[in-house]
Design a protein that fits this description.
single chain; globular
Length: 150
């Protein structure tokens, strides 16, 4: 897969957010919302620090960006995720109107490195029948993505 300069920039921001999450005691995941070639919001996983099992980076991103920027900021946007979004996050991004998802580490690599419970459905498979369609691209920048999991 080819990585554009913007894709690389925003994925690296997601990786940085993942490292921040890990340092705070959360799972190492981060996400960035981009629209019209600009990063609009960045979030990190907060499951442990918030006590909310649904506080995956992508859901935190959607909630915070919607509250701060309004729901229109999500429609047609791209979400960059440090790791492949789970089925819960993929569905939430669809319902929010996100048009494109770009991720770093694939599900199998995350499982191998982090273990734990797993919804073993790939993001692209979760969204395969979505109407309107959501583009899913990844894995990208794999070495950097895997380093962010450590």
């Amino acid at each position: 897969m080819t990585t554009s300069d913007d894709d690389a920039t925003y994925l690296r921001r997601a990786f940085a957010a993942a490292r921040t999450a890990r340092a705070a005691g959360d799972m190492p995941f981060g996400a960035v919302l981009a629209r019209d070639g600009q990063a609009a919001w960045t979030a990190r996983n907060r499951q442990n620090t918030s006590g909310d099992p649904s506080a995956h980076a992508e859901l935190v991103l959607l909630r915070e960006a919607c509250a701060a920027l309004g729901p229109d900021a999500l429609r047609g946007a791209t979400v960059y995720a440090s790791g492949e979004p789970c089925a819960m996050c993929a569905g939430a991004m669809f319902w929010a109107g996100v048009a494109r998802i770009v991720f770093g580490a694939p599900l199998a690599e995350m499982e191998a490195r982090l273990g734990g419970p797993l919804l073993g459905l790939r993001c692209a498979d979760t969204l395969a029948a979505a109407r309107p369609a959501v583009a899913v691209e990844g894995p990208l920048l794999l070495d950097e993505a895997l380093a962010a999991l450590a």
